[in-house]
User: Fold this.
Amino acid sequence: VPDGSDAGGTTAAAGARVVRAVLLAHPAGHSLSPVMHDAAFAASGILGRYQAWDVPPAALAGAVARLRDDERLWGANVTVPHKEAVAALVDECTPLALRLGAVNTLLKRGGRLVGDNTDVEGFARAMAELELDLRAARAVVLGAGGAARAVVAALQDAGAHVAVANRTRERAVRLAAALASGGRVEVLHAGAVAEAVRGAALLVNTTSVGMQGGPTGSPLPEGVLPREGAVVDLVYRPRRTPLVERAAAAGLIVQDGIAMLVHQGARAFERWTGHPAPVTVMRAAVERELEP
Ligand code: ATR
Assistant:
């Protein structure tokens, strides 16, 4: 287990500048992961830092090779648009990453580069904060991208009845088929979304609607919300999306995207370092960064 004592620098200050983990993304500029992981390294007494690499698709193979060959690097996070493509470039994928068809974390095990996924655990931990009983509960997931796959898998594991609605229905059908081994996933027709949402104990938005700089408005028809239960939005910029504002005003339990962001990062940190993640410190670093 790396502990920073092999940091390579001759002084602690030099060691603290050694890059230990990177983000493979395109674009990478707005990521909160550097702030979050640098705070985690510092709080854990680990010499090192985290660096975002802006990697266009054509440069992905080279970036992965650099990660594999540089012994100072312990691992990486992977995000848009590389979560699927990177799976073909690693030495092996964990069963979970294979189940999802998406890799969000790279780590090294015995000289091999492994593709893993911490989004499922991240979402499960975020749900644990809400203390909902998801067994046999009805959950509606909006969206059918990579984030939706992780959310659906976590909800399947928690024993929920999962229904998915997506602008492009065909993509939701593919999601349901890909994750079928974990349990049945219902695909909602556009006309059935409102009623399913009203009856849901949990609604999760995984689309980019409401995100700063993204599509505006609500991912749901106006006025439609669960009658009771919780609304979770994976969007964290702005902290409170119009959907979350509306749900909170209706007296529903709400959660913004920070919980999932922090918990998936915490699980990645633990994979790389073998240290327990300082979750409170990581969350505070992210919240400080998101303050207006
Ligand atoms: P991620 O990996 O974060 O899930 P993604 O794979 O790009 O990102 O998925 C984005 C999701 O947001 C998709 O479900 C997308 O719907 P489509 O599959 O129809 O593209 C959804 N989305 C993006 N813009 C949207 C909009 N304006 N209205 C509704 N859904 C939208």
Observations:
- Residues 10 and 96 are 39 Å apart (CA to CA).
- The chain is about 35% helix and 20% strand.
- The pocket of 2'-monophosphoadenosine-5'-diphosphate is lined by residues 80, 143-148, 166-168, 171, 206-209, 215, 219 (CB under 6 Å).
